Each structure stands twice: as C-alpha cells, then as structure tokens.
Amino acid sequence: MQEITLEYLLNHHFEKTGLEKDRFTKPNASLRFSPNQLSQLPRSDNDKMTDLKIAMSDIQFNKKMSQSEFEVRTNILYNSFKKCVNSLNASNRRVSREMLAKFVVGMGLSYEEADTLFALESQPLSPEHVLLDAVVVHCIQNKYDISEFYETCGQVNLGVKMIV
Predict the structure, then answer these.
(1) Cα 57 from Cα 153, distance rounded (Å)
(2) Number of folded domains in the chain?
(3) Which residues pair with 130 in a beta bridge?
(4) Whole-angstrom Cα distance, residue 83 to residue 85?
(5) For residue 32, is it within any domain?
(6) Does some domain include residue 140?
(7) Percent helix / strand / coil, the chain, rounded to 5
(8) Which of 32, 105, 136, 157 could cross-link to 149 by cystine, CB 3.0-4.6 Å?
(9) Of 114, 57, 65, which is closest to residue 88 (Cα–Cα)?
C-alpha cells in the first residue's frame, strides 16, 4: 500500500467522496434456485452487514473501554452505536461508511482490520478512488486519533462533522 500524504489528499482527483448515499435495488424475487445453486451464490449484502455489526461489536467489547471513553475516542454516541450494531436486521439500520471511518480511526485499527470491515460494509478501502477512504488510510498510517481525523477532513473539505 502506498503512503497517503496530505499532499496526495489535496491534489489527487477522486471519483467519489465516500459520503454519497448509495441506492440499493431489490433482486428479482421471482428467481428460483436449488439448494446447490444457492450455496454457490455470493453472500447477500444483508449477511455482510450482519457480519460487520458483529465484528464491530466484538472489537468494541475486546477493547474493554467505558462508554464515555468509546465516545471520546470515536466521536460516536455509545447508545447510537449499540442500537445500530444490536439491530442485526440490516434493513433497519445500516452502518454508514462515515460511521465506520470514525470507528476504525478511533479504535486504532490496522489497515488490514479496517479493509476487512470496509469490505463488509460495501467495498474494500479504495484510497485511489474515494476521498474518505484515502483519509482513513492516511490516518491509519500516521496513527492519528479522532481529532486529527476531523482536522484532516477539514483540510481536504470532506464534510464529516463532529457529533459529540
């Protein structure tokens, strides 16, 4: 992985900001598959979102931090986080890419851990094409905390706002 510098963030042309709301279309419900065919199909987005929520909950639990420490480190309200990850029905509450970015940076995850979580959300980290992803990689590489994440977002005019 190439090093992502502030100069790269300021001068590179990105295809997306990473904050866009993607529209999901429903698959054709009239298709019928045999059990063997179903086992060969890729997993659904709902299954991936459930796996993402479980992984995020496990990471938060294993860090053994208080609710207030979690909020300070991630700038995510603890009650909002719990409502989101405890709602395993993916259609009720989806983890946004922005929330995931704050979680990854705030929890001090490695690039590999972050990439795995982002792949479960929708797609792996793509710092060449998505500005938010490039900011996340930059923050991971420099071991930034959440305040430095927001500072970097401000420097590159990425509309991520502090909530706590």
Answers:
(1) 25
(2) 1
(3) 16
(4) 6
(5) no
(6) yes
(7) 55, 0, 45
(8) 105
(9) 57
The residue range of the domain holding 124 is 44-155
Query: How many whole angstroms separate alpha carbon 145 and alpha carbon 139?
Result: 8
pLDDT in tens, 82-118: 988 887 665 567 888 999 999 999 999 999 999 999 9
Tokens of 63: 């860090």
Could you tell me the pTM of the whole model? 0.82
* Full 3-state SS string of 99-146: HHHHHHHHCCCCHHHHHHHHHHHCCCCCCCCEHHHHHHHHHHHCCCCH
pLDDT at 24 over 50: no
Question: How far is the C-alpha of 81 from the C-alpha of 141, rounded, in Å?
Answer: 25
70 is written with which tokens? Answer: 């979690």
